[in-house]
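Please, structure for the following, as tokens.
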Amino acid sequence: MDVILHIGAHRTATTTFQHFLSDLSAPLAADGIAAWGPSRTRNGLFHGIHGGRARAGHDVPAPFARARGRIALNLARLRDRGRRALIVSDASLPGSLRDTLTRGALYPGVGARLSRVHAAFDGQIDQVVLTIRSLDLYWSSALGHAVSRGQPVPDADALDRLVTMPRSWRDVIADVACAMPGARIRVLPFERLGGRPDALLSEILGRPFAPDAADRRLNATPKLPALRKRAGAGAPLPGGDDRWQPFDAAQAAALRETYRDDLFWLAAGADGLAEPMAYAPDPTPHPMPHSKAGQTPPQTDTTRGSTDDIQQRRMAPPRRE
């Protein structure tokens, strides 16, 4: 049975995709496919995975051992029922969105967390799917979501730290690859498929599966009127009814430039760490980050060269200055 780990990222329509999988549980099962979303992974099944692991010469901590046992038992049951594939979808496996914002870095603990997941599955993870998003839009959505949950509006210094923070998707991908030896790491820019869960499922499975999904977006970031109401009087939020854009033009351009560099790196083979997913034609109005302030649109032809070795796990090289 193939085990496919879908790890988000946050703010890339992950909740919509998980509800879509739940709605399709019967036809998926008929096709030999099972799906675990947060209702399974956060309801006791994975409890203990992140509570510590054995060091050399020490016993495995009891909570981790029990989690590994629960997972093994559930995998065996799925195999006995004739399931050929399992999709595990949880955007918090690499780390919480709150931690990402608090530490001002993209999933700084992803390597350690996913190495525990890999061990809890006894290495039985065949594929990891990561959806990435243009950094100006990712951080804007993440900050808007946080404000809607009662977090303070970030000040100028906090925004500048996000812009100048050196960690990008390239580093996240490298950490994922190192934590998941033997697994196929596949990366999809969110802008290619937008919020279409049917298209994402077909990409993950490598074949068309479901009919077109209704255009629904769950857990979307509230627009400015809702954010102003939640943040209260005096909050440093602009007027208007559109989505909140916390970054100025120069900051947004810098974030898009970093994302474009990540896409070029992915297109060039990602140093053998990962591969871009095969893109279907995109009929949705979700273009790649468009040209602003002299920005060149990012490369979307991510065909890998024949000499790329997906099993060669190396850390990402320094970026060009």
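DSSP finds 13 helices and six strands in the chain. Residues 2-136+166-217+257-276 form a domain with the Rossmann fold fold (CATH 3.40.50).
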